[in-house]
Specification:
The complex is a heterodimer.
Chain A: H1 2-24, H2 28-33, H3 47-59, H4 63-68, H5 78-86, E1 97-108, E2 112-123, E3 126-139, E4 142-146, E5 166-167, E6 188-198, E7 201-210, E8 216-225, E9 231-236, E10 244-245, E11 250-258, E12 267-276, E13 279-280, E14 285-293, E15 299-306, E16 314-322, E17 328-336, E18 346-351, H6 354-357, E19 362-370
Antiparallel strand pairs in A: 1-2, 2-3, 3-4, 5-13, 6-7, 7-11, 8-9, 8-10, 8-12, 14-15, 15-18, 16-17, 16-19
Chain B: H1 2-26, E1 27-28, E2 32-34, E3 39-43, E4 48-55, E5 58-65, E6 69-72, E7 81-88, E8 93-101, E9 108-114, E10 117-119, E11 126-133, E12 145-151, E13 158-163, E14 168-173, E15 180-188, E16 191-200, E17 204-205, E18 209-213, E19 222-227, E20 231-232, E21 243-250, E22 253-260, E23 267-271, E24 276-282, E25 285-292
Parallel strand pairs in B: 2-8, 10-16
Antiparallel strand pairs in B: 1-3, 3-6, 4-5, 4-7, 7-8, 9-11, 11-14, 12-13, 12-15, 15-16, 17-20, 18-19, 19-23, 21-22, 21-24, 24-25
The chains are: A alpha+beta, B mainly beta.
Chain lengths: ~375, ~300
């Protein structure tokens, strides 16, 4: 009985102590998320403190305070600064929240310093990192950050004629006789499928072809079966696939089964599904300057060029990697955080696991796009 | 136990025999009647009674004078099936049974044609199934001749005549060599059903590209890449919107672009690198590869 009371008192005291510690010495990420974090900022008496303060202000979207603390604000306006971080056009950046940040001092003298700032932004489709090399200069007893502004290009006013196909669909009505024809679902086919075992489970990789003459909304579901026919697990490709496939287009797909060993699996039941959707052949995205970069930090880099006149708000790039025998090795993807403006290249980098990267001989990249003013 | 079961069986048999006797004694029923047609039931005896006709999804009730003929108008019993006639008299009940059959003359066809869209030149690719109904939507079970006709956009059509079995007739047909909408007609007597079958081009054949320098002044030299008109192996132009992938490999780098066919041709622009290899593909079909400039 006495032991129980002691335990309760101990828990209460520890809780109060932890709350006090968290309030007095909060973690940087907690400050970034806190609305009143400005009160917790340190004086910019060191280069690191100046950068930390700036990152906090960015996290709180205190654009005015952040901009006023910069050493080079004569080079750009506050709106330019905000647009650099949130994007001029609606994109993933526009709706991202700063999750946390890292600092890495690169070089320092008595009057200036170089610090690498990594801003970790969270979005609905995952995290993206914005890395900036900051030049920090001493002004009196304070340090100020010279912000390396990245001005998004503006598209000059113009008329771009676009006459690509668009498919609309009229389905059978409820009043039609049961024998009346309906529009046929698109015919899709899995042209490649390959299971691999990874440390965190079994991964199914494959490619799906729309062999029809109409656009398809596709997804792939896989079920792992044991030797006795029992279902081990069932998963879908979720966003590791291009869901909208135009005629004769091929998409890679990846389905992850966590905490399962390949030795448990006797067979795999694949269920590709497709439905007819209204779609447009526009916009056309060119993926140029694709390069496989070896380990360490193996990646597929390149640039997306929007060849159409429509602004693409979110672009998703899927990379398919093959060995020298043409065998599918890996599928990886990246969402591009900036909007794609017409004829304006935007870089992307898809990371590849180091052990896979050593075997990669060829690759193929496809891009899928989402525009707020279009249904595709 | 065994004795009880035997007694029950004997009782049932006796009841059926009594039912048969009752039918012959009090009610004169036709054996079969065509759905929707007029008919009559003759009763015997004297006095008043109530005649019930019980069938699939329908019950009729008539107050009758025993010994007279009760008439039923056309359309009173439209549903085919097995019917029970029950005559309730003051002191007893008589029962009989008869069948309503579908009219022998088909009135409507439910025609299922699959698929509604398929590539050209596909053997047995089209299936047609017909359900034959009379005016009252009863399945016509009598064997009936049904002709299926597929009229393509070119050449002679295909005709097959089959006999229905239990109200159903079916066939398979080949898709034609020419793309376009084909009429698939099922006909029996003067009743027909029409479905449209979209015959679409198959996979592209002999995909070829050519390249030339772009005349547009722009940053860096660009290549104008263009396919020859993209056609399938039967010579049909593949539909606009078909994705053609251009791939350019150069100095360890690569550029790709997925371009939809427009007016039969896929066109794009890519950077002009000396020694670049440019290939083209659509779906799982590879085209030719060209080399630009010299390495």
């Amino acid at each position: 009985m006495i032991t129980g009371r002691l335990l309760a008192v101990g828990i209460a005291v520890t809780t109060v102590a932890l709350i006090a510690i968290g309030t007095l010495w909060p973690a940087p990420s907690a400050i970034a998320m806190a609305g009143s974090g400005a009160n917790l900022l340190h004086p910019s008496s060191t280069p690191q403190a100046a950068v930390e303060n700036l990152a906090h202000e960015i996290g709180q979207q205190a654009w005015e305070t952040a901009y006023s603390s910069l050493a080079n604000k004569n080079e750009f306006s506050q709106d330019d600064f905000k647009r650099d971080l949130t994007g001029s056009y609606s994109s993933l950046r526009t709706y991202a929240a700063l999750n946390n940040f890292d600092l890495r001092p690169l070089h320092a003298t008595a009057d200036e310093a170089q610090i690498q700032l990594k801003l970790h932004w969270s979005t609905v489709v995952g995290m993206f990192v914005d890395t900036r090399e900051l030049h920090v200069v001493r002004t009196g007893d304070r340090w100020e950050v010279a912000w390396p502004i990245v001005k998004e290009p503006r598209v000059p006013p113009q008329v771009i004629a676009v006459n690509y196909l668009r498919w609309d669909v009229i389905y059978r009505g409820p009043e039609d006789d049961w024998g009346t024809q309906d529009v046929e679902a698109p015919h899709v086919r899995i042209v490649d499928m390959h299971p691999v075992e990874r440390s965190d489970g079994v991964i199914l990789l494959g490619e799906l072809l729309n062999e029809d003459v109409v656009p398809a909304f596709v997804s792939v579901k896989a079920t792992l079966l044991a030797k006795n026919g029992a279902v081990i697990a069932s998963e879908g490709s979720f966003d590791k696939i291009c869901h909208t496939l135009l005629p004769k287009q091929v998409t890679p797909f990846l389905i992850a089964f966590h905490n399962i060993e390949l030795s448990q699996v006797d067979s795999v039941h694949m269920e590709p599904s497709s439905s007819l959707i209204a779609a447009s052949a526009d916009p056309v995205i060119e993926i140029e300057d694709q390069k496989l970069n070896p380990a360490p930090g193996a990646s597929l880099t390149g640039k997306l060029v929007n060849q159409s006149g429509q602004v693409v708000n979110v672009a998703h790039v899927l990379g398919t990697f093959y060995d020298n025998a043409g065998q599918l090795l890996w599928v990886s993807d990246q969402y591009v955080d900036r909007a794609l403006l017409p004829e304006t290249p935007v870089s992307f980098a898809i990371s590849i696991p180091p052990d896979i990267a050593r075997k990669v001989s060829t690759e193929r990249a496809v891009a899928t796009t989402y525009s707020s003013d279009r249904f595709q | 136990m065994k004795f009880r079961f035997s007694s029950l069986l004997v009782g049932l048999v006796l009841a059926v025999v009594q039912l048969a006797l009752a039918q012959t004694s009090a009610l004169r029923l036709p054996r079969t009647i065509e759905a929707g047609s007029k008919f009559s039931i003759q009763s015997s005896g004297s006095g008043k009674g109530i005649l019930y006709i019980v069938g699939p999804g329908q019950v009729l009730r008539r107050n009758i004078q025993l010994g007279e003929t009760t008439f039923f108008a056309p359309g009173d019993l439209p549903n085919a099936g097995h019917y029970l006639a029950v005559l309730v008299k003051e002191s007893s009940t008589d029962t009989g049974a008869f069948d309503i059959t579908a009219a022998s003359q088909p009135a409507t066809l439910s025609f299922l044609a699959k698929p509604s869209r398929l590539p050209v030149d596909l053997h047995d690719g089209i299936s047609g199934v017909v359900y034959i109904f009379d005016t009252f939507h009863n399945l016509v079970l009598q064997p009936t001749q049904v002709s299926f006709q597929l009229s393509g956009v070119a050449g002679a059509g295909q005709i097959q005549t089959v006999t229905s079995h239990d109200g159903i007739a079916w066939t398979k047909m080949n898709s034609g060599a020419k793309e376009g909408a084909a009429q698939f007609i099922a006909r029996t007597g003067n009743v027909s059903g029409i479905r449209m079958i979209q015959q679409v081009p198959g996979d592209p054949c002999s995909l070829r590209i050519n390249a030339r320098l772009s005349s547009q002044p722009s940053s860096g030299q660009r290549l104008k890449l263009e396919t020859d008109p993209v056609r399938d192996c039967s010579g049909n132009a593949v539909p606009d919107g078909t994705i053609v992938t251009f791939t350019e490999s150069y100095n360890g780098g690569e550029s790709t672009v997925d371009v939809p066919v427009k007016q039969g041709v896929a066109r794009t622009e890519m950077p002009a690198y000396n020694g670049a290899r440019i290939s083209v593909a659509t779906g799982v079909v590879m085209g030719n590869e060209i080399r630009w400039g010299k390495e």
